Amino acid sequence: MFDTLADRRHHGGVTVSPVEPSAGSPLPPDPVQYDSVRNEHARKRGLPAPYIAGGDDPDLPETLRRERPYVRLLIAMVVAIVIIGFALGVVEVLLTSPSP
After folding, report:
1. Regions of the chain with pLDDT less than 70
2. Domain count, the chain
């Protein structure tokens, strides 16, 4: 019924083979990109080329401005969880301590 593993999948193969660059027009090396953070991390991992999914944010200040309320909310939630933990601990001690 199924000839290959790709035939059994709904959308065919999961990955595709990388496209080989044409032999007639290789790209010249870029010394500035060689020292970039992405290339440095890729070389440390032993990767043949840099690949970090997502890329650089084109408008980082705007993104940070939009995310600032979420950071404040996260900090407030952590503080609330810690305070609630202490409050429940105090309530437990008051309820389980022997009466004089």
Report:
1. 1-32, 34, 49-55, 100
2. 1
